[in-house]
Amino acid sequence: MEQHQRLDDNEHLAVLGYTGSFDRSMSLWSNFALGFTYLSPLVGVYSLFAVALATGGPPSIFWLLIVGGGQLLVALVFGEVVSQFPIHGGIYPWTRRLWGRRYAWMAAWIYIWAMIVTITAVAQFGSGFLGSIFGVEVSRGSTLLLTLVLLFVALALNFTGTRTLATAARIGLVAELTGVIALGLYLLIFDRKHPFSTFFDSMGVEGNGSYAAAFMGAALAGLFLFYGFEACGDVAEEVNNPARRIPLAMVMTILVGGVSALLSFGGYVLAAPDLQKIVAGQDPDPIPAILESALGPIGAKVFLVVAIMAFMSCVLSLQAAASRLVFSFARDGMLPGHAWLAKVSPKSKVPTHALIVACLIPVLISVLIFFGSEQLLTQVTSFAVLGIYVAFQSVVLAALRQRLRGWKPAGPFSLGSFGIVVNVAALAYGLFALYLLAKPTSTGDFFTDWTVLIGFAVVAGVGLIYLFAARPDGKSHAPSGDALEVAEKLRSASH
């Protein structure tokens, strides 16, 4: 791929039909930090640690390896796509250039809703830690109140501008690394109360049934953790040498995030003073107790502050990302109320109206969770992850379709002849993940069991009705379905 060294960033953009209008100030490490704080192993492990252990017991840690491996395949496919198309917006422009406008519209519509629901889930899970700092007893009322505090504080910070967001991302990265790797190693080395063989002991979670079913039920622990790496590509036009650096940042996000999550999850399991109680589902918020046992009351409080910083950074970043996606969609006339949603504050240079939407819809969902069943948060989280995975697989499927038509990715990051094999494997993994996420539960209550699929059907159904009634795809004149032609142009331009 030597010839690609001759194309600089603006020449590459010109072939794609754009002119460089952003400051390329983001380095490889900044781009990695962005993906890492989105992926947020600290938030992922904290959020679903109790649920994973109560569902699948200590062996649920193996989902981190299974999902990490599968998502690495997806990241490699994304790497080839972004290397050819290093442009702002990620999944929306990638699917547009690989397939077409309608296909891209549906992928982005589902992705927007999944991100908004993810904001809700992260804020809900973070409320428990906020409560622990202030000694507030966990109840449905206190969870709702503290969730709203997290959402509105993030909104206020986002209103002040991009500089605040960048600072929060850096603080979040430091908090993540301290809170995940340092603490995980400390617990494993100095405070281990159980043998490593514990990870092969189901501790009776299967009851009288098969353990395989219990293990499959714990898949969400891994599936909720390994996304966020796609965010590295959302800011492609602000990265120096993005065609080479963004694929690397994506792979680094998965690898560093995976190792961090394994250390963290493993440390908590082996340092838990009463592991049986957590596995029995009698302790819905066990991590503060594990920390107090290992670090003492003052150490545990300090660590909870670090955790809240990571949660706040994650909510802030997700809110900002969702608002940018809503804004870019609205700017193309693609959404109802697009003129209002596309407004940018002249003072802070952020899309304030889109930010309000990215805050208020999670507020409404939080109120629904407050009035709903105990399982609703897990179902809401499952819906969010299902939507994200559908959006991811829309890129993987579109890339495979183009390969079968003869597309050879023309960016400097290339898997060569292994590209098709990795692409097929990524799609197979994705279909397996979608099955696990969409599979109805078996509580006996129809609405509870089918919430995830009902929610997905409503979002997709409303999207399809709007797409065919309002024809938003006809309002965009951006290039689409041209992956083969662009690859040829890039190769010609580099000679």
Could you describe the 3D structure shown?
This protein is mainly alpha-helical and 495 residues long. The chain has one domain (11-474): Up-down Bundle (Amino acid/polyamine transporter I). The protein is built from 20 helices and no strands. It has helices at residues 9-16, 28-39, 41-56, 62-84, 91-98, 101-133, 140-159, 162-190, 211-217, 220-223, 231-234, 242-271, 275-279, 287-331, 338-341, 352-371, 376-404, 419-438, 446-470, 483-493. Helix 8 (162-190) crosses helix 12. The mean pLDDT is 89.
What keywords describe this structure?
495 residues; mainly alpha; Amino acid/polyamine transporter I; 0% strand
Level-2 CATH architecture = Up-down Bundle
CATH class: Mainly Alpha
Share of helix, binned: over 70%
End-to-end CA span = 12 Å
The CATH superfamily appears as Amino acid/polyamine transporter I
Strand and helix map with partners:
Layout: H1 9-16, H2 28-39, H3 41-56, H4 62-84, H5 91-98, H6 101-133, H7 140-159, H8 162-190, H9 211-217, H10 220-223, H11 231-234, H12 242-271, H13 275-279, H14 287-331, H15 338-341, H16 352-371, H17 376-404, H18 419-438, H19 446-470, H20 483-493
Helix pairs in contact: 2-8, 2-12, 2-14, 3-6, 3-12, 3-14, 4-12, 4-17, 4-18, 5-6, 5-17, 6-7, 6-14, 6-16, 6-17, 6-19, 7-14, 7-16, 8-12, 8-14, 14-16, 17-18, 17-19
Provide a brief overview of the structure:
The protein is mainly alpha-helical and 495 residues long. Helix content is 71%, strand content 0%.
